[in-house]
Specification:
about 180 residues, alpha+beta, 2 domains, four-stranded mixed beta sheet, 6 helices, about 10% strand, elongated
Length: about 180
């Protein structure tokens, strides 16, 4: 939550989203959480000395956002900068919707987000959905394109070849000539 003293002397760069923050839901949760920390800090100013409650606990994703970006959540300016960054992400980042047959593992989602941010856009957000009828693979949707990479679609596209292969394997073969019978002795 709080970078060490040495990090505070480094120049601060443009914030980046940690891999844990992959969707709009997490961005909005972070905005609410930063607002809660702000509320706590405002209330702490007006409390009687010696009656200060402990700092509010922060989630793993807020901690990752602050530490990955060398920001101190106790500093109003750092919180304000993170809030503005997240508000910009919420309004302007491209969103990709990916539907899977079952819930993907967090390791897979992490790898997918890393790839998307490295190859598509540095702040791309991912929305994950479930469609059990796709069997395997996924369906990827952007605001103006859809890519059906499912097993169902692949089989549908290969239907003619599959029927041809089935017909060949089930069609009667030309009769195999019988082996010459040995003469009865």
């Amino acid at each position: 939550m709080v970078p060490d003293q040495h990090d505070q002397h480094k120049p601060k760069s443009e914030p980046k989203l940690p891999v844990l923050v992959y969707g709009l839901v997490e961005v909005r949760r972070l905005l609410r959480e930063i607002e809660n920390v702000d509320d706590f800090m405002r209330q702490a100013v007006v409390r009687e000395p010696g009656t200060q409650p402990g700092l509010p606990r922060v989630t793993r994703i807020l901690d990752a956002l602050a530490t990955d970006n060398n920001r101190n959540l106790l500093q109003h300016g750092d919180r304000q900068e993170l809030r503005e960054f997240l508000s910009k992400i919420e309004k302007t980042s491209p969103t990709i919707h990916v539907s899977f047959a079952s819930d993907p593992s967090s390791a897979f989602v992490s790898k997918l987000v890393t790839w998307l941010r490295g190859n598509i856009h540095p702040t791309v957000l991912l929305q994950i959905g479930l469609q059990p009828n796709i069997a395997a693979g996924c369906i990827v949707r952007t605001p103006n394109k859809q890519f059906d990479l499912s097993l169902r679609e692949n089989l549908r596209n290969q239907r003619a070849k599959l029927i041809e292969a089935l017909n060949i394997s089930t069609s009667p073969q030309s009769p195999v000539p019988a082996a010459p019978q040995e003469a009865a002795a």
